[in-house]
Design brief:
Low-confidence stretches: 1-22
Shape: globular
Number of domains: 1
Radius of gyration: 19 Å
CATH class: Alpha Beta
Distance between the termini: 25 Å
Number of strands: 7
Length: 242
């Protein structure tokens, strides 16, 4: 009810009667998973696919949710001249009718030397600016969707492909945690929930036992690794999307 000039007015939005204002349980939700090779399901051994990705387990873990995989191998958050499949450039192709949108990327921006930029940037060729653009654009198109970001997991690098480990500097002199901090900062600015897999994925490429079981190339996950990651994501998503 709204009160105006001493009279109470009926507000459909407050009463929850508009269809698009309804709150769905996670089990009834459609979840758009927007990511790179770790969402696509690369197994680190030249194969893989959506069928082994963490996304393939997520629906069952959430009680029957519909999960859509929009992962592209090598995709970066920001625009760079050598490719045309950044998250920014692919934004038109994801499901903007989904109830939840998960954005999971950033490791390729770090490893392929995307400029970090500065807080407040709106330049989509910089990491800060591209993050800002994604949040504002997804929200403008799907204002009632629950938007969640996930920080990129640690990797042990692949030096033969000029890919630094998370704790090593890229060609810009930045380690991966600089990109993680930028994501946390931009999401904090817009009050977007973040699942911090960089800090709390439960899988470390720096532990030989974990690498053997879960991360065969130190970058991507085995089927067992993706399943383990899915459990961590499902638990965190349940907490932030209540």
């Amino acid at each position: 009810m709204l009160r105006m000039n001493g009279m109470y007015l009926y507000d459909r939005r407050c009463a929850g009667e508009e269809k698009n204002m309804e709150t769905k349980n996670l089990s009834e939700s459609t979840i758009c998973c927007f990511g790179d090779s770790t969402t696509w399901g690369d197994n680190g051994c030249g194969g893989g696919g959506n069928n082994i990705s963490w996304t393939s387990h997520l629906g069952a873990l959430l009680g029957g949710a519909t999960v859509e995989n929009f992962g592209i191998k090598g995709s970066r958050i920001a625009v760079k001249a050598d490719r045309t499949d950044s998250f920014v450039e692919r934004l038109d192709g994801i499901d903007h009718a989904a109830d939840i949108c998960i954005v999971f990327g950033g490791v390729n921006d770090f490893s392929r030397n995307v400029p970090l930029g500065e807080p407040g940037s709106t330049d989509v060729h910089e990491f800060y600016g591209a993050l800002d653009y994604l949040i504002r654009t997804i929200t403008a198109r799907s204002p009632q969707a629950k938007l969640v970001f996930m920080t990129p997991c640690k990797t042990s690098g692949k030096h033969e492909k000029d890919i630094p480990a998370s704790n090593e500097a890229n060609h810009l002199g930045l380690t991966q945690d600089a990109y993680v901090r930028a994501m946390l900062e931009v999401c904090d600015r817009y009050s977007v929930p973040v699942i911090d897999l960089y800090a709390q994925s439960g899988i470390s490429p720096f532990l030989p036992e974990h690498r053997e079981l879960y991360m065969p190339d130190g970058l991507h996950y085995s089927p067992a690794g993706y399943e383990r990651l899915a459990h961590r994501i499902a638990a965190a998503l349940t907490a932030v999307c209540r």
